[in-house]
Amino acid sequence: MQKKIIALAIAGVVSGAAFAQTNVTVYGVVDQGYLYAKSDAASSNPEGDNKFSGLKDGGLNGTRIGFKGEEALGNGLKAIFTQEYGKAADMNGDSWATRQAFVGLAGTWGSFTLGRQYNAASHAVGRNNANDVTSVNPYNVIQGQFGSQIRSMGGNARQDNVVKYMSPNWSGFSFIGTYSFGESTNGTSGASAGYNQYNLTDVTDNGRYSLLGSYANGPFNIDVAYALTDSVRTTYPVATPDLQGKDIEEWYIGGAYDFKVVKLYAHYQELQNDNKATSVITDMKQYSISLGVPVAAKGRFMVEYTVLDAEYGNTAGNTDGKTDGWGVAYWHDLSKRTRLYAGISQIDYDKNLPALTGDAQVMAPGEKATHYNFGIRHAF
């Protein structure tokens, strides 16, 4: 009898644990493709063309695994969480990186979350650009190099120490707001420098604000976003002369209209950076226009054109550079989870702008670069 009671107790504990896990979802993406990129080299390079050939992770979406869930707390209130990690599938030893990690509460009033999250403005970019083949998308290739706070992928789109509010949908209108604490220190090692490492910083330094207002109704949507990094400072104690401590501001407006046979997308953004301590983009304007065309029930054809007009400056002075690029892409769904994709882009990179970074960014100042990419993405 005692053994039966113990067995029933164990079964109750196990079933309780299993029940607690039913509100947790495991999800992820594995995305791999081949990328070939080529550009004429800068005149100072005697070795000839710049080239890249190899596997590239994340042609559509970065490879990741995540866990998300919720717990009903009663009266329409629930606790929510997400823990998501990314790791390139084509490299051994590449460490896992935290993409998102947050916890919060949600109800009919919206949601309030704390942790590493996407800023508000980044939610708009993806739905206002047709070109899903992100590794050769000229908008992403160009804009990702210049410190934009408003991005659809990686970089500054995901921020640490974020407090975030997302509203419900009010007859097509919605709102998102975030604040990311800068949590800056002066870089010293505590008492060894004769003072506490926190006492020279301003609590507002490097804090980030972002706001997004959206309207979507039927075939039409429009998004207006604003992002600001407050009192940008990387050097403590403050140097003389003080060339930092200024804000970086960015505005964005974008929209789309679905004509059924074709969907038209467009957006414009502008960044202003008043800091002069290092070589930075002091002013950036970029716009993009693109089309998405459905092909039968499982395919999509995309074409895009983008222009970047940038002023690149430092303490020695400023130079202006204007770069444009076009891209064509296609994807085809083999199932609800598996997609094939291919894309090509060409970017005419201005001679006054700095060389880009990354193994696929072969573009040399003053030259044209062409990128070819095809791959497969599976979501689970």
Characterization of the model:
By secondary structure, this protein is mostly beta strands. It has a single domain (31-379), classed as Porin, CATH 2.40.160. The chain contains 3 helices and 17 strands. It has helices at 2-20, 122-125, 138-143, and strands at 24-39, 50-57, 64-74, 77-86, 97-107, 110-118, 158-166, 173-180, 208-217, 220-229, 248-258, 263-273, 280-295, 299-314, 317-333, 338-348, 368-379. Strands 1-3-4-5-6-7-8-9-10-11-12-13-14-15-16-17 form a 16-stranded antiparallel beta barrel. The longest helix is centred in the first third of the chain and has 19 residues, at 2-20.
Q: What are the key terms here?
A:
3 helices, 380 residues, 17 strands, 16-stranded antiparallel beta barrel, mainly beta, Porin, disordered N terminus, globular
Basic shape: globular
> CATH-wise, what's the superfamily?
Porin
User: What composes the largest sheet?
Assistant: 16 strands, antiparallel, barrel
Helix fraction bin: under 10%
**N- and C-termini, Cα separation:** 45 Å
Sequence of strands across the biggest β-sheet? 1-3-4-5-6-7-8-9-10-11-12-13-14-15-16-17
How many alpha or pi helices? 3
Given helix and strand content, the structural type is mainly beta
| Radius of gyration over all CA atoms, rounded | 24 Å
Mean pLDDT reading? 83
Would you report the number of β strands?
17
- Element-level helix/strand string: HEEEEEEHHEEEEEEEEEEE
